[in-house]
Design goal:
Shape: globular
CATH superfamily: Jelly Rolls
Organism: PS1 clade bacterium
Largest sheet: 6 strands, antiparallel
Distance between the termini: 47 Å
InterPro entries: OryJ/VirC-like, RmlC-like_jellyroll
Radius of gyration: 17 Å
Protein name: Cupin domain-containing protein
Strand content: 35-45%
Number of strands: 13
Low-confidence stretches: none
Helix content: under 10%
Number of domains: 1
């Protein structure tokens, strides 16, 4: 039995060479990545673009690229995060930090050493998140809050982490690149 969750269906629709609306692809999402370090977190990269405004006639697969924790500084990406119940004591911190560095391709992500949670970080982005299954704990350096199914969060470049120790969950994220300088 595979440890990875079944990827969500991803349908891409655009305009074909004849100028007609057309289905470009329709399959289980082919871009699923484990968070590493023994984590049960899986990133499903749905689509990324590098600059805004986006050329909507470009039919290249926006998710066909190496995993990046944050979007391009002038772009955005859409991600579905799926997690099983996680035991934070089983995380290999050294491996998790190494993996974090490997996916910090845009340089917009930053780790914070914290005894509160193994993955305390921030991204210099504006993130819109929606809990679609279960609940997750949003961990801040000095407090935390439970996000339940249907709840929406707007993250503005702050240090945080997500705790999955209470059960399986799923969240959708749209992350928009930015800077705070």
């Amino acid at each position: 039995m595979s440890l990875s969750p079944k990827p969500p269906r991803r349908v891409v629709v655009g305009t074909n060479k004849n100028g007609n609306s057309a289905i470009i692809s329709d399959s289980d999402n082919p871009y699923q990545f484990n968070r590493g370090g023994g984590s049960t977190i899986y990133f499903n990269e749905i689509w990324t673009f590098d600059n805004c405004p986006v050329n909507s006639k470009n039919m290249n697969d926006g998710a066909d690229r190496p995993l990046s924790h944050s979007p391009p500084q002038n772009g955005a990406h859409f991600r579905v995060i799926e997690s099983k119940k996680e035991d934070n004591k089983k995380i290999d911190q050294k491996e998790a930090d190494k993996f974090f560095e490997s996916m910090n391709r845009t340089g917009l992500s930053e780790k914070m050493k914290s005894d509160k949670h193994w993955n305390m970080h921030r991204t210099r982005t504006v993130d819109y998140g929606v809990v679609t299954k279960g609940n997750r704990t949003h961990v801040l350096p000095d407090t935390e809050l439970i996000m339940n199914q249907g709840d929406i969060i707007v993250q503005l470049g702050h240090f945080h982490s997500w705790d999955n120790s209470h059960g399986a969950n799923e969240m959708l994220f749209i992350m928009i690149g930015g800077d705070d300088e």
